[in-house]
User: What shape does this take?
Amino acid sequence: MQIQTFKIFCDLAETESFSRAASLNGITQSAVSQQLRALEERYRAMLIERGKKNFWLTPEGRVFLEASRAILDLHGKLGERIREMQDLVAGRLRISTVYSIGLHELPPYLKEFRRLYGDVEVMVDYRRSTQIYAEVHDGAADIGLVAFPVRKKGLKVDVFWRDKLVVICPPSHALSRRRKVRVEALAGERFISFEPDLPTRKAIDRVLKNHHVKVQEVMEFDNIETVKRAVEIESGISIVPESTVSDEVKAGTLVAIEIDGIDMWRPLGILQKRNRRCSPAQRQFVTLLQMGIGEGAALLPPARKSPRTPNRP
Assistant: This one.
């Protein structure tokens, strides 16, 4: 039995008119009569006494009307509850990120998101870029964060930030006295590189090759922290995202030098699976990334938070 049948019966009982019940439900008067007849046959009871001048509910009809109203009310509340669940910012959010973004760009966003939506359990996994693309595509991660994002089938890619690449060296290095340096001045320098398959390494290699600059690659690492430590102990110089060395520059353990004459930027991308329904938590986190933190966070589109549970253990 369809939910519309209960509504038709309620309309018929309340209006005491087959024609008005038909009009309210966009059907013919004969269809209303057929619905009523089908109900009476199913329950083997007369629900409405009808004649030329008489129209009233039988005792069985009053029982059926009361039940119909309860069913319609429950159905309406169910729809409201589902809509509430679709707007509820709660549950689990799985983020897969490369080390450099996860350790430097991501933390302030996580802090702000957790302040706004404390009922969301945010899980962060640190992966290599190739793993992140696969995890987002396979549904193992809701959001992927990578540098130099590339378009791949089945994935939605959005750039949310661009970070300047700079030369870093220890304070004792000859280049440390310069505010800017041309890429050609790096020729012959001992160079601490990222591993060859990392996107940032590939971008740096392209720039060096295009400017016919050859460096002495003395070490290769798969994460930014190890690269910085190697430069600090005077093993060589490197090129890294500026945001990743702000603490070391402030502490005086590293010097960051702007690259003159070339715009070297590292775009940061958000990966999401295409044609997959986003949870409210996922939508809000992506919005936060795209709008930034601070004042921008106050401009987030409204979304209902999960009600706090007092005295939660």
In short: The CA atoms of residues 51 and 98 lie 77 Å apart.
